[in-house]
Design brief:
The protein is an alpha/beta fold and 295 residues long. The chain has a single domain (3-294), classed as NADP-dependent oxidoreductase domain (TIM Barrel, Alpha-Beta Barrel). It has helices spanning 25-38, 52-59, 81-98, 111-115, 119-131, 145-154, 170-173, 176-182, 213-226, 230-239, 254-265, 281-284, and strands at residues 3-6, 42-44, 66-70, 103-108, 135-141, 159-163, 186-190, 246-250. Helix 2 links the parallel strand 2 (42-44) and strand 3 (66-70). The two termini are 35 Å apart.
């Protein structure tokens, strides 16, 4: 099982199919207890995930979990030495909130920061933090195949987080997953359910997503053919990719995590799902969804 626990819901209101908002602290404790019981070892978090790091510091600061966190977002046309210093301070604050001396991984949260002029200063600072023993692996979170290619051409990353789902097969079809794996980069896949969009009933879709209703109906038909449900199909698709080391999934309740673990341990025979791949980045990239998309 490749499941890793994404923790954004422990710190923020997050997800198109999450009407309940941020997970309360007592339920967060039950989520983490369920993760321990299932043998999950990896937690994914970020400095920008509201109170998520603080929650993990309270409830999951032991050695049973490895933690990957992310930098702040700079959003600048040129990276300066002061930005590299800010990256260091962000990690030090993250370590304090997490109540840890070191983390498993540190990712640049916004790939354009690393790819901007001067981005080498950020990577050099991350290398120094690794040499100091504050982080084991360094890398970046990307949103597009182009970002993955540009990062791979310029930086010796050890860890990368990529979007990947039944609908978003861009890095699979384009060969970027293969190239990353051949370089020995550890690949963490996120957005296996597109923030829950793939799990929504087609009839309940907000108007913005109406154009993918036929694709969602085809997804449900494929799940029936495989003798599973949409959750099992979507999770199984990403878990079975040999290049992927971990599938980062967020939940709001312990019961949801138990259901994910159950599906993750199942092994349905999956049909060929390449025909379900979508190309519209206005759908595939949640950061591009306008506020009206959620209504």
């Amino acid at each position: 099982m490749k499941l890793a626990l994404g923790t954004v819901q422990l710190g923020l209101n997050y997800g198109i199919s999450n009407p309940g908002g941020r997970t309360p602290l007592d339920e967060a404790g039950r989520v983490l207890d369920a993760a321990r019981a299932a043998g999950m070892e990896l937690l994914d978090t970020a400095a920008l995930y509201g109170e998520a790091e603080t929650v993990l510091g309270l409830l999951a600061n032991g050695p049973e979990f490895r933690v990957v966190t992310k930098t702040c977002r700079f959003g600048k046309h040129r990276i300066l030495a002061t930005d590299a210093a800010a990256l260091r301070q962000t990690l030090l604050r993250s370590l304090a909130r997490l109540r840890r001396e070191a983390v498993e991984g540190l990712l640049v949260h916004h790939a354009p920061d690393l790819l901007a002029p001067g981005g080498e200063a950020l990577f050099a600072e991350m290398q120094r933090l690794r040499e100091e023993g504050r982080v084991r692996k360094i890398g970046v979170s990307v949103y597009t195949p182009e970002e993955a290619e540009q990062v791979l051409a310029r930086f010796a990353v050890q860890l990368i987080q990529v979007p990947c789902s039944v609908f978003d097969q861009r890095l699979l079809g384009g060969g970027q997953l293969r190239d990353l794996a051949l370089r020995g980069v550890e690949i963490h896949a996120r957005s296996a359910f597109l923030q829950g969009l793939l799990l929504m009933e087609p009839a309940a879709l907000p108007p913005y997503f109406e154009k993918i209703r036929p694709a969602l109906e085809a997804l449900r038909a494929a799940a029936r053919t495989a003798g599973t449900d949409v959750l099992g199909l979507c999770l199984g698709f990403v878990q079975r990719l040999p290049e992927v080391h971990a599938v980062v999934c967020g939940v709001t309740r312990a019961a949801e995590l138990s259901e994910l673990v159950e599906r993750g341990r199942a092994a349905p025979q999956l049909p060929d799902l390449r025909a379900l791949a979508q190309s519209d980045t206005a759908i595939l990239d949640p950061s591009r969804w306008p506020p009206r998309a959620l209504r």
